[in-house]
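Technical appendix A lists one of the benchmark inputs used to test multi-chain prediction within the project. The record comprises two sequence entries:
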Amino acid sequence: MNPDMMSRRLLLKRVAVLGILAAVERFIPGCAAPNTFVDLGSQTPLKGEVIDLIIAEQLFRLDGRTGKAITINGTIPGPIIRLTEGQQATLRVTNRLKEITSIHWHGILLPSHVDGVPGVSFAGIEPGATFTYRFPVKQSGTYWFHSHSGGQEISGMYAPLIIHPLKPEPFRYERDYIVMLSDWSFESPEALFSNLKKQAGYYNFHKRAGGEFFTDIRRMGFWPAIQNYLMWDQMRMDPTDFADITAYTLTYLMNGLSPAANWTGLFHPGERVRLRFINGASMTIYDVRIPGLKMTVVQADGQNIQPVEVDEFRMGVAETYDVIVEPVEDRAYTIFAETIDRSGYARGALAPRAGMKGEMPERRPRPLRTMEDMGMPMQHMGMEEHGLAKSDGSEMKKHEYSGAMTMPGKPPSVQIPNVNPSDNKSQMEHMHHDSEMESMQGTHEMSGKHSGDARRSEIPGAEPVKHGPDDHGPGNQTVAEYSRNRSGEPGRGLEHSERRILLYTDLKSLAPYPDQREPEREIELHLTGHMNRFIWSFDGKKYSEDPEPIHFRYGERVRVTFVNDTMMEHPLHLHGMWMYLENGTGEYLPRKHTVIVKPAERLSVAISADAPGRWAFHCHLLFHMEAGMFRVVEVSPP
Amino acid sequence: MNRTGLPTKFSRSLLAATLAIMLGDGIVVRAIAVEPSVESFKIPLVSRVTHMGARTVRISAGAHADASATVGPSLQETLPNLSLRSPWPAPVNDQEHHLFTLIDVLEYRPKTGAGERISDYRWDVEGWYGGDFNRVWYKSEGQRDTAFKADYDVDFQLLYGRFIRKYYDFQIGPRVETQSFRGSNVTRGLAVIGIEGLVPYNYDFESALFIDQNGAVSARLSFTKDLLLTQRLILQTRIETNAAVQRVEEFTTGSGLNNLEFGVRLRYEIRREFAPYIGISLDKSFGETATLVRQEGGEPSQVRLVVGVRAWF
């Protein structure tokens, strides 16, 4: 492919599979029968032609509490499966539960009947039965696998899947660690879901309350603050809604260990360390950083990309990112994965010796949704903000950018991602607030610096598109009156950061993929839902209300445009086929199995319908999927 | 007692008028046309054959026609094999039903002042069973010696509810009300049409029109709003008012505006589901109702301290 790839497989990377578990001893149960407990830290890699997996219910002990878990081969996460590109994989999964189970190979291209989604690709694995998945391995990179049945995933059924490439990789490293992030609750999945259905804000303990109101009055001025609070109340929306399930009940895990247990990967100063980040959480979007280290992102969703150096990146549920870091100092570095709502974090360390803990980074305040996330029309936004800015004058401007927190009603961070420079002027003319120009310029400069070298092409949805008349029925709360592509934005809560944040527009495939056809047709799919009732759907219909598949013709190149009418980020996952993210990188469109669609965003992906059969397509937030944000995609036979 | 034949007729026409208004709004059409037994279960396998290519697609220049026609035959071939076994499970459980009960008010109203008043109590409970759109609702309110009704007053409603207009449940069903009055019980049955939901500015809104077995028409309206002082310390304001078209002396209600109750309750959510509270409730009867209450020896205007617990499960 690319001639200037210079690399070879290094022996060392096979040596270190998992880091030293600094706190193993506190998890070995001394009293209880050990065979019934989840065995921590023994995630032995499985490889070879035939791999056996056993699904069973076990007890999981975490920070002194014990809960019921469902495990793969007795560990959380399950065993690391290591395959080699080109091999035939045979995976025998035995169900020792009392309910149907399944395993889905996330991001893997395979025949539809071994994709592992009960009700779509097969009947599921009955209690006591063994199901054999057999498929040729046609790709390489960092992936994972998990249950696709009910709430089994959040109960512990997930594990890394690493596929070694046949060709050498275009980057070097001396150590190779998997960093699998996940979330754990001692409440049963049924209880979690039921709580959300009864009171959607059940787990949100970061709502706007009295104290904050007075702070906001001091900062924004009396009337602007009142107006702002009333505006959200008037809309019956909660601007603090970032995560449906929070640290109130969740413990955030790194390779199965709580922050207190501090998972540690060892290094010698000066070594290059490859970290394979996998977001195996069920309900948690993470922002990942290693204070003191630049991370060079080399793969996204298992696919090589043109290396990009960042300080932090946002990980939607089910996304994977491979980064390379070069710690040179003889000290511990904290791997810090803060949740999107800032209610908690997963934490581990890179350290020269076992037992070392990195410094605790400063925590950030929880962000707030803005009118931009509501997809409010520009004129309206202009007015709102004009009103706000006028009444408290220049003082507000001063404070506005001082904190990481975004005040709703303040100018949106980026109006239009830098699409093509000639466009900028006309875009800016649409806006009414002068105060915003500086910040916009800043943003443009930043993203332009890193992406200006590539050939840019138009991003579908770069210009705001007005929503049609369909309000998607009673099961959908709001529509984004204007939606537009936001892939040039770091995402709510990361804007105005001094740190370099990975943007979707940074993702460029290492070499152009063969299928460079322009999509022949476009399917527009609206992401809809109702925050108060915890209904989630596509086009206003839950899966059960619209179970007919979305049809792709075999061989066609189709554009699917997601329009997010909700006020939350949704990591959308298509089974069986790649989604080529149309992020304006021309022939270097990256391919992904999971893409985050931001609130009020219009995001397009191109798909080459090369995999006949029925495939699941859904939001990967477990309970959004369970609530109905799910569809079947059917590709016609060749 | 002044109970003529007029109210019956009047209330019927009022009911008809109400229905007509709602029909015009398209509310009743949807509300009544639904099957009460909530969303039906479908196996995706069957439906994929029956509804081919129903999806709307935006076709760009030079696009191809819907490809589903070529898919049909081959799918039908594979169907028998698949349906031999027990049907496949649904990939997601988006039709799950839940049972919810909210005890919004369950309170003790201690004796106030020096009078011979005794301590009272009050409750306001509601709940539902069902899915996202169709629910069976149940509600109960009960009170003793408020400014509105001189004696015990307990009611129970069992309603069918349909989610409409994104924020409201349209409800319809029967209500039974019983009062202990001068040592004897009076009971009546009523029909209920109600709308409950969340209005702009985040007020929980509950309204109902009642028509009793004799055709007397009355209505109830309430608003509640939560104000978060902290994440767990919450001030709930509550306004409830009742009105009636006819005077129904048996039930201590005059025609016109019956009463107004304004309360503030400060609760602490130990858990989301369980919150003890204290508060103050101002109850006032008006017009004919006030006269009736006074006649019964009640106090048409009261300020009561309340202590209670709010809970849900």
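The radius of gyration of chain A is 24 Å. The CA atoms of residues 554 and 638 of chain A lie 6 Å apart. Comparable benchmark entries are summarised in Table A2.
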